[in-house]
């Protein structure tokens, strides 16, 4: 994607982000109540009324066309090939989601599938009940039930005896011991002994309909792991034209190009669409989206990146509305500790001390959002009760060149005609990677980093990441320094494991962090989980593994007659969190 964003942070342990529904449970997550206000035209009420802004009575009917800038490479949601944000977004109108967060950080459970919120039955072993609505179906008259839970368990088990050769999008199934059917349309999931999760209520428990797997020719999925794998691949390779567990049904689609939906007549959730159709169409850049929006060929878009110059175009057109505000992505620069140079903590400390984070943020993001703030905590926003200032006593991100050179001198580094040399006399060169294509922010950050590091004698070799290849670049460790954005939600219990635990993308390993990860898997205390994750983050910062930059500003732009579209920092789905409520203004209401 143009934003150079990785797949959703937490994808290895958590479910996909979800559609909002009715039941609520307050959750203290990344915060949001103290977020700076949005800037733009037509969304001014989002500052004071973030959960209801841009609302209005909807007219019956209308064909709404929405642009997306993520090119999805799979249709399925159970394997790694469909774990990208782009695939999640293209499926959002029909996915069997469990919950979502609103802009106030409040969790809402999907009232189209569940009769009530998940219920904790026991802690040892962890046992959770899911109360299904009897009328909840897959859009074809077949009720959602235990077979769908069992299929997803096998798909995400990571067990060759359950799903042969599968590469699951989450590790949910690896922690499940049994799934059983109980009375009153209830499914009970029991986890393995010793496994606990303070965010147990957020697990993704279903992705695809088991009966459709059978109808597509994979009837033996329960007993044959090869057939099970084939059914996973089938869902990934073919569009979901034969099922839906959301407010819309897909009627046609071409991979990476478009998907067309109509309302799902069997959907019983509170989000009921008034549209005749919804089309999600790939358009690769914010500039192109703005042009088509002004021409009336699309009705809205929420690009992952944009050139601030596009805001002038939007502001000059009285038929459009737009908003810019920090959303769910946070930008950072990471060090690859497997690199021979960056394996030295002193060099990492010097590199991140030389970079001026405030300057980077103002120059890169300030033109789009003047109130941009530099992150001081990598997990929680300032509005969260769990926020602590993790950089108050650190020089990281200070841009203090003298301090950076002093760190290097003390560690035995020298300079030859301003070229930095290791204590062994080897010239220090590093390969810097980020996404440039279609992104107005990262080229600015790249140029600034080149300038800062030249001041301490380090020459950077620039190697842009092609669109869509960030995941493979991270997995292969094909970088020395890298800048991109993680996509966050108020869920945080798995953060330490994902960012700094075994197999993390930086190669960082720390015994204390490993112990934190182990403890996180044995606690239901969310306050304790927050404390532990903050400890792990502090250790990573103290050892200069990464430099946080900012919660990056995001843009939403719509035709003035489009209502109930609003951005949402608290979910990876952003505007799509309430897609079932979108519509055109009823001017006669």
UniProtKB/TrEMBL annotation:
Residues 125-504 form the Solute-binding protein family domain. It holds the Pfam family SBP_bac_5. InterPro entries: SBP_5 (IPR039424), SBP_5_dom (IPR000914). This is ABC transporter family substrate-binding protein. The lineage of its organism: Bacteria, Bacillati, Actinomycetota, Actinomycetes, Glycomycetales.
């Amino acid at each position: 994607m143009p934003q150079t964003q990785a797949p959703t942070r937490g994808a290895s342990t958590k479910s996909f982000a979800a559609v909002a529904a009715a039941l609520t449970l307050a959750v203290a997550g990344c915060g949001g109540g103290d977020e700076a206000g949005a800037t733009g035209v037509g969304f001014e009420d989002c500052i004071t009324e973030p959960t209801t802004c841009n609302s209005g009575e909807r007219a019956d009917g209308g064909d709404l066309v929405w642009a997306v800038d993520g090119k999805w490479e799979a249709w399925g949601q159970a394997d790694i090939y469909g774990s990208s944000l782009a695939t999640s977004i293209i499926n959002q109108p029909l996915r069997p989601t469990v919950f979502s967060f609103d802009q106030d950080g409040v969790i809402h459970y999907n009232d189209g599938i569940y009769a009530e919120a998940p219920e904790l039955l026991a802690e040892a072993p962890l046992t959770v009940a899911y109360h299904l609505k009897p009328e909840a179906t897959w859009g074809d008259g077949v009720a959602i039930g235990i077979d769908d839970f069992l299929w997803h368990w096998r798909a995400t088990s990571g067990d060759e005896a359950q799903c042969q050769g599968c590469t699951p999008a989450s590790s949910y199934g690896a922690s499940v011991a049994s799934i059983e059917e109980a009375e009153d349309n209830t499914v009970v999931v029991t986890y393995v002994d010793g496994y606990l999760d303070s965010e147990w209520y957020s697990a993704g428990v279903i992705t695809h309909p088991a009966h459709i797997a059978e109808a597509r020719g994979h009837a033996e999925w329960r007993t044959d792991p090869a057939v099970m794998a084939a059914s996973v691949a089938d869902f990934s390779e073919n569009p979901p034209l034969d099922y839906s567990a959301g407010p819309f049904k897909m009627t046609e689609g071409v991979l990476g190009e478009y998907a067309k939906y109509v309302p799902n007549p069997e959907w019983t959730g509170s989000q009921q669409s008034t549209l005749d159709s919804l089309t999600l169409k790939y358009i690769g850049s914010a500039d192109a989206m703005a042009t088509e929006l002004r021409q009336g060929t699309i009705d809205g878009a929420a690009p992952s990146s944009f050139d601030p110059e596009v805001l002038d175009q939007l502001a000059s057109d009285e038929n459009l509305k737009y908003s810019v505000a920090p959303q769910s992505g946070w930008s950072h620069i990471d060090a690859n500790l497997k690199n021979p140079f960056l394996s030295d903590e002193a060099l990492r400390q010097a590199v991140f001390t030389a970079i001026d984070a405030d300057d980077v943020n103002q120059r890169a993001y300030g033109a789009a959002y003047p109130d941009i703030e530099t992150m001081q905590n990598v997990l929680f926003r300032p509005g969260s009760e769990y926020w602590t200032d993790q950089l108050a006593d650190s020089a990281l991100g200070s841009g203090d060149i003298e301090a950076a050179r002093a760190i290097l001198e003390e560690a035995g580094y020298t300079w030859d005609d301003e070229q930095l040399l290791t204590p062994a006399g080897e010239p220090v060169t590093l390969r810097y990677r980020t996404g440039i294509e279609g992104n107005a922010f990262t080229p600015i950050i790249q140029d600034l980093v080149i300038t800062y590091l030249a001041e301490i004698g380090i020459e950077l070799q620039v190697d842009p990441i092609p669109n869509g290849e960030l995941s493979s670049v991270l997995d292969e460790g094909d970088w020395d320094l890298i800048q991109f954005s993680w996509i966050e939600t108020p869920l945080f219990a798995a953060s330490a494991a994902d960012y700094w635990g075994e197999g993390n993308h930086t190669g960082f390993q720390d015994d204390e962090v490993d112990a934190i990860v182990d403890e996180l898997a044995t606690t239901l205390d969310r306050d304790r989980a927050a404390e532990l994750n903050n400890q792990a983050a502090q250790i990573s910062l103290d050892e200069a593994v990464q430099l946080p930059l900012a919660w990056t500003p995001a843009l939403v732009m719509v035709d003035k007659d489009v209502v109930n579209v609003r951005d949402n920092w608290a979910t990876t789905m952003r505007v799509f969190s309430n897609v079932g409520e979108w519509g055109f203004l009823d001017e006669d209401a």
